């Protein structure tokens, strides 16, 4: 068995390809739930305008799913870029991570449908916690098993770990606010997410 | 945070892989809406012929979605090919671009279902405008952050930017024609698209 | 415009990645139509056995779709492997090819549902003809535009073209037999397909 | 024909890309069956809690599908990593393998819906047997046709083949236990699967 472990799951490229595939399908599948308004129900420009307006909230949820998945795609990518090769343990942690990715559209839709329910918020937060925990575990595993590139600067490892810990602390704090009010809690979590998505664009804005 | 930005989102290959995945799923998913005629409703060759004829318009819409997505896949690819590496800002602009890609099947189907409605035309044009704007922004970001290959000829950057500006001007002009008549407007936009798809094949025809 | 053509659509890798994505989704999507038997309708081992037997023909159709798509995936791959780079014309021919790929599950399901109808057979054959024609056109374009690897032996080009012509002649002959009887025609086409899929395994069998 | 065989299906990268695509879609598609609870049916936190609890078993099935697909993705990857190039025979064995991959979500759902039926267990086991047989055949073909890397140590081939044989023996023994009781049989098979998925993580746990 240990011999097989030496030869299995060593390709970072294929792990990345499988991940990109799962992310791409998870990001895109929801389009099936986005139906165009029924032709019979629309008799004027105003009807169509209202019908499209009614789709708006759902569109906002899907945009939020894109942002959530984008954050963790970036996070996973930052790790994989520094790996010289993979091994079976790491492959399995990433397959578990992909399972959590697969859950994201579900938990996002759940939260959007039940904004006043603490259970929905808890489920959403547990999903994010699972994603963060598995990403952290995968990095600990990669460093512990000497799978990272030899020329990686020492501070990279600290940056990756600190990043996950800070983000997860903010998410946990946001989720805790649901004891006060779920809306406050949702706004906080969304702000944390937008911070991670939009923040890096600010320096570019200054440059241009 | 700035340290993390240095190590995150640097792989052009993975950005390209995620994009190809989203494009492939967006292009292919609509097949689920393309049902074969019900066996019970068909009793002669002529019935089947008519049933297939009834599917024709929908097939034309999907072909148009393929053309639209093909144009922007080519446009994005032209940029990514010239990048030495990516960064987090650029990754996020491309994730936003993929969100607009994801909207394309929806807005195309909307336009096809409501050909006489200006709102549908507006929505379709806004989708194309969003795609163009994000592609332009991604190139400005790539050049401004010195992410392009050092050996890229100077005129490439101009060509990529001019290309987007001209195409978007033509689309905007076509969309404006809806003040006259939505059919005129649709025909104009489709002609612009076909021009971008088929035009490059003309020199080849001459060669062969 | 000609300048943009020089910089657009040059990556064979990304064309291959998009193609693999479309093939993978087209191959896999049909699983959504394959429902497990309803728990309420099954009360004994025999019921389940019969229910699974009823799914059998559908499974055979999907297997046939896999074979059809596998044949053309192999055909496209044989071409792409010999390209040094791509250009915009070639990209667009391949996008049209992917549209025909996308039609394959539809035309296969149609033929399976209407085995006695010449129209269904005609539609299926037109799909295969379209795939073959576009593959042939893409190779003519690639050779005509000097996109193939310089070290490609001269006989490769002849082999690729002859292969498509012979296969398409066999398919056309098989389709023509529908003037006699559609079943004869289907059996012929399936035999041609199985020949292309299984034949290359025969030499291996001899080796083992 | 033999000339065409020399030039077709030679790219391991594209075979891997197609496989990753099929695995990614097969892993992700099931999310469409995972509906959030209906807003009308939920009136309290407790209702939502119960509704989510009712989704639990289905989630467990999907997790099991992820594990099954993960095991065979790892198995296929271990082989592809050692190939110098592919050929048409090998491509077709892998396309057949992907067909069996495509069946996995179906047979897993079937087993989960009919846990007390031997027919369901038989179908599930046949799926696993098919996957194992095709993986074994693909390796025999790769070694027999001298497609493996020249620098591959001799013991790798033995390890890959022994691995499949041992795993399949355990699965077959587990399936045979259905003569006693299907539950015993399912527990055995799941334990074998978890062993292959979690076992390699144990050494890592010791390291950390």
Structural descriptors:
homotetramer; 208 residues; 8 helices; disordered C terminus
In DSSP terms (H or I, runs of 4 or more residues), the helix count of chain A works out at: 8
Helix content of chain A: over 70%
Shape of chain A: globular
Sheet with the most strands, sense and barrel status of chain A: none
Please give the alpha-carbon distance between the first and last residues of chain A. 56 Å
The tally of beta strands of chain A, per DSSP, is 0
Mean pLDDT score of chain A: 85
- Topology of chain A as a string of helices (H) and strands (E): HHHHHHHH
Please state the oligomeric state of the protein chains shown.
homotetramer
**Secondary structural class of chain A:** mainly alpha
Which two chains touch over the largest interface? A-B, 47 and 46 residues
Strand content of chain A: under 5%
Radius of gyration of chain A: 20 Å
Return the domain count of chain A. 1
Give the uncertain stretches of chain A in residue-range form. Answer: 204-208
Folded structure, characterized:
By secondary structure, chain A is mainly alpha-helical. In chain A, 77% of the residues lie in helices and 0% in strands. Chain A contains 8 helices and no strands. The longest helix of chain A has 36 residues, at 45-80. Residues 204-208 of chain A have low confidence and may be disordered. The interface between A and B is large, with 47 and 46 residues.
């Amino acid at each position: 068995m240990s011999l097989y472990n030496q030869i299995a799951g060593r390709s970072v490229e294929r792990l990345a390809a499988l991940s990109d595939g799962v992310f791409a399908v998870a990001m895109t599948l929801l389009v099936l739930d986005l139906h165009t308004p029924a032709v019979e129900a629309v008799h004027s420009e105003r009807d169509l305008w209202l019908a499209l307006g009614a789709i708006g909230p759902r569109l906002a949820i899907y945009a939020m799913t894109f942002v959530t998945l984008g954050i963790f795609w970036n996070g996973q990518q930052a790790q994989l870029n520094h790996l010289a090769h993979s091994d079976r343990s790491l492959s399995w942690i990433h397959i578990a991570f992909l399972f959590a990715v697969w859950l994201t559209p579900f938990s996002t839709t759940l939260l959007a449908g039940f904004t006043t329910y603490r259970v929905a918020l808890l489920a959403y937060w547990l999903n994010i916690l699972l994603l963060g925990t598995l990403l952290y575990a995968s990095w600990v595993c990669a460093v512990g098993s000497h799978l990272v590139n030899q020329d990686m600067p020492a501070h990279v490892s600290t940056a990756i770990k600190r990043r996950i810990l800070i983000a997860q602390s903010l998410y946990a704090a946001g989720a805790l606010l649901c004891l006060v009010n779920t809306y406050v809690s949702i706004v906080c979590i969304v702000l944390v997410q937008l911070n991670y998505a939009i923040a890096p664009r600010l320096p570019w804005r200054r440059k241009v």
